[in-house]
Amino acid sequence: MGDREGKQEKKSFRNMHQQLCQELRKENVDLVVQSSLSARERHLAAVASALWRHFFSFLKGQRMSQAVPSSQLADAAAEKEYMEQLSELTRLLFKLSEVKNIFSEAQVEYLPTPEDPKRALIQFLEAVGITYRNLQKPSDKSAMVKKSLEYLGILVKSWAQIFATSEAQKLLFRIIDCLLLPHSVLLQEKELPAPLLTAIQKSLPLYLQGMCIVCGQSQNAYLNQLLGNVIEQYIRRFLPASPQHVLDLGQHPVLLALRNSATLALMPSLKKCIVQVIRKSYLESKPILLPPRLASILAFILQLFKETNMDVSEVEQLLPGVLKCLVLVSEPQVKRLATENLQCMVKTCQAGSEGEPAAQLTAVFRHFIQDYGMRYENQIYSILETVAALDQQVVIHLIPTLTQTLKDSEQKWGLGRNMTQRKAYSKLLSHLGQVGQDEMQRLENENN
């Protein structure tokens, strides 16, 4: 019976695969002038091919003999633990009108039983393929492709713990490579077809949430790298093209992945990965991003602070890049957004430090002064005035570094005391209460 069932499953997958490939061949359109719909269909065919090549062997492996390595036994034990949950999920899904409509469109007379989730999945995938094949209007086919991408996203998220097992990870890698990171996506200068972006935008939060769960379960370095690559590509793809459209960020799919309340347990790890990508790929990029794109990424960071509980370690990663924007870029929109980010970061550190200045925050400012204080002293004083308005103690802790940098600068140029710079420094000190007044007095005594 086992062999007969295996052959039937193999035949079902082969039929589904052949149907999708035949549908593509029927289009008979020149490769050079293929429409964006054809591009999406090729992506769907690639994913179908991955399902054919890898998913059958995964399912067949569940009927292995008991003489298997211990690591596979552990995976099988994990598979069994979720069977009841999968059965219940299948039962609930079959109650949805959308699912019923797909089986009806495909003229499936008898629905599979919820107690056999594996068979239910096969029949549902077959039904989707048949429904797509029977559609006539390009708009209907486009909508079906979007829905199919969403189904795959749901699969990745709902089966995340299954994909964390050693046997199933190869399938997940192929889905990511074929669907989310095809060659055309990796070409930064190439714009993707708008319908394809729209389809990915709706399903991307599901993929990110599922991948994050798998990363936490499997500790697979390559998968963590893939997650970072997906985040990097689609932060950029869905950023507004100009600062005038930053209000559209509320629907950015990477932020939507964090916003879903059902993902609270995985939010810290996903947020950590997003922060690392922003720092490495956007704030530390060389050369520095041009103002329109820089303004958009600063607006993204600001939205991230508004929607999530950022911690001091995340501020520590992002603050140096924001300070660099304030020093090196004069474009008004960039300066405004960078200043708002600076204020959010200081307030975040205040909330997490119980009234004491966060050591990480002070260290970041100290390095910033040492790196830029000799050339951009006026900009630094202006930035620290903004900080002092929110938290005097942070700037007070920086007075020794600021004073030493002033003296080092005067010594470097060899022109005696720089009265213009000292006047600007005194203006900053005037915002720091008695401690600032004492330092101003010491500087005045030196002048005399």
TrEMBL record:
Pfam families: MMS22L_C, MMS22L_N. It comes from the Eukaryota. GO terms for cellular component: nuclear replication fork. SUPFAM superfamilies: ARM repeat. Keywords: Chromatin regulator, Chromosome, DNA damage, DNA repair, Nucleus. Residues 152-432 form the MMS22-like C-terminal domain. GO terms for biological process: chromatin organization; double-strand break repair via homologous recombination; replication fork processing. The keyword Cell membrane does not apply. Residues 13-65 form the Protein MMS22-like N-terminal domain. The keyword Ion transport does not apply. It is found in: Chromosome; Nucleus. Transmembrane segments: none annotated. InterPro entries: ARM-type_fold (IPR016024), MMS22-like (IPR042320), MMS22L_C (IPR029424), MMS22L_N (IPR029425). Component of the MMS22L-TONSL complex, a complex that promotes homologous recombination-mediated repair of double-strand breaks (DSBs) at stalled or collapsed replication forks. The MMS22L-TONSL complex is required to maintain genome integrity during DNA replication. It mediates the assembly of RAD51 filaments on single-stranded DNA (ssDNA): the MMS22L-TONSL complex is recruited to DSBs following histone replacement by histone chaperones and eviction of the replication protein A complex (RPA/RP-A) from DSBs. Belongs to the MMS22 family. MMS22L subfamily. This is Protein MMS22-like. It comes from Myotis brandtii (Brandt's bat). The lineage of its organism: Eukaryota, Metazoa, Chordata, Craniata, Vertebrata.
